[in-house]
Design a protein that fits this description.
The chain has two domains: about 250 residues, Alpha-Beta Barrel (TIM Barrel); about 80 residues, Orthogonal Bundle (Arc Repressor Mutant, subunit A). It contains 15 helices and 17 strands. The relative contact order is 0.11. Bound molecules: iron/sulfur cluster (SF4). Iron/sulfur cluster (SF4) binds next to loops. The site of iron/sulfur cluster has 11 residues, from loops.
């Protein structure tokens, strides 16, 4: 078996744009545009396959956007291509992102038969007023139904995405949402604090709402950590919690600097020592792939110095944290300044060590941006 690699396919279409979202996705694209996109993605996948012959694809992730909006036919074609053209590992994790209201029992059964074995369901909230305020296209009843139908269709590995820090949301209401979702029994739960992204409708209308302040949002985050840990969900990354052995294998690749290939507009790849991304423009991508034009947005070789910094930045987002021995072995760098900076964080309750590994505590995760910046600074000063 060759080195493993993850494959990400970006499906940049949504039913409509949510009011808080600044991801690259287009609402209401017509069928012709979607067909052209699916064709371009299939061509790009076929062209990419020879580069992966010495590898084994052990995770595939259809993300977006809202992949089911592409339609069953194109998803089936892409899955078929992946099976025929790529060195797909037996037991590969194959994830489909979906929103309640974009899938029903019949479609889910068909998707399961096509080989998707993990579903990531964008539930976000179980409060209909909040869902409407966020501009979501589904309500809580549809979220409950989608989960039940996914289970009935044979999805034994389901992740549920939730948002906290929502206007008017109390800690008690947030805990009630978590408890209901826990009672459904998903294998994986992601909890993201709402970020007001400049230029979105929610940002524009922000004065109309009362958002939980930083302290209240921090309390909601810590409430999620304790609710979920108590119910058997291990916090394996700042925002991600999973039952044993159910962490997202694909997403772990991003945090552990493992190689992955991303196809589609705005998709990123990290492979063979280089990192690159494609244009953030569906038409430009389709015309480029089908017409032979340039679709590259940017590409860079990552020097070892930058990799070492990324190792610290990304691994400290995870519960596994960083290892001094691994750091020295991989990057031939001195871990001592990093360790001293981590010891200072440990004295404040923000980090802890076990053997040669260091990780942030849940309280440390809350301040991770600042803590990681301090650690990188300490490391640079000693270089
Ligand atoms: S469904 Fe997801 S990607 Fe699409 S607009 Fe809403 S938040 Fe953004």
């Amino acid at each position: 078996m060759g080195q493993t690699v993850g494959l990400y396919l970006h499906i940049p279409f949504c039913q409509k744009k949510c009011d808080y979202c600044d991801f690259y996705s287009l609402p209401n694209e017509d069928e012709r545009a979607k067909q052209a996109y699916a064709k371009a993605l299939a061509v790009h996948l076929t062209e990419t396959a020879p580069a992966l012959t010495r590898h084994t694809v052990d995770t595939v992730y259809f993300g977006g956007g809202t992949p089911p909006v592409l339609g069953l036919g194109p998803l089936r074609t892409l899955m078929d291509l992946i099976r025929r053209r790529l060195p797909l590992a037996a037991g590969a994790e194959i994830t489909l992102e979906a929103n309640p209201g974009t899938v029903d029992g019949k479609l889910l059964k068909k998707l399961r038969r096509e080989g998707f074995n993990r579903l990531s369901l964008g539930v976000q909230s179980l409060d209909d007023d909040l869902l409407a305020l966020l501009g979501r296209t589904h309500n809580a009843r549809q979220a409950r139904t989608a989960f039940e139908e996914a289970r009935a269709a044979g999805f034994g590995n389901i992740g549920v995405d939730l948002l906290y820090g929502l206007p008017g949301q109390t800690e008690e209401a947030w805990r009630a949402t978590l408890r209901e979702v826990v009672a459904w029994g998903p294998e994986h739960i992601s909890c993201y604090g709402l970020k007001l992204e400049e230029g979105t409708p929610l940002w524009r209308d922000r004065a109309e709402y009362v958002f939980p302040d930083d302290d209240a949002q921090a309390e909601q985050y810590l409430a999620a950590v304790s609710e979920l840990e108590e119910n058997g969900y291990h916090q394996y990354e700042i925002s991600n919690f999973a039952r044993p052995a159910r962490a997202s294998r694909h997403n772990m690749k991003y945090w552990t600097l493992a190689p992955y290939i991303g196809l589609g507009p705005s998709a990123c790849s990290d492979f063979g020592g280089r990192r690159w991304s494609y244009v953030r423009d569906v038409k430009g991508y389709v015309n480029g792939v089908l017409g032979g034009g340039d679709i590259l947005h940017e590409m860079e070789e990552i020097p070892v110095e930058a990799r070492a910094a990324e190792y610290l930045m990304l691994r400290l987002r995870t519960a596994d944290g960083v290892s001094g021995n691994e750091y020295v072995r991989l990057y031939k760098k001195n871990f001592e300044p990093v360790e001293r900076a981590l010891e200072a964080q440990a004295a404040r309750g923000f980090a802890r060590s076990a053997g040669d590994r260091w990780r942030l505590t849940p309280e440390g995760f809350l301040l991770s941006n600042r803590i990681i910046a301090d650690i990188l600074e300490a490391r640079a000063e000693e270089a």
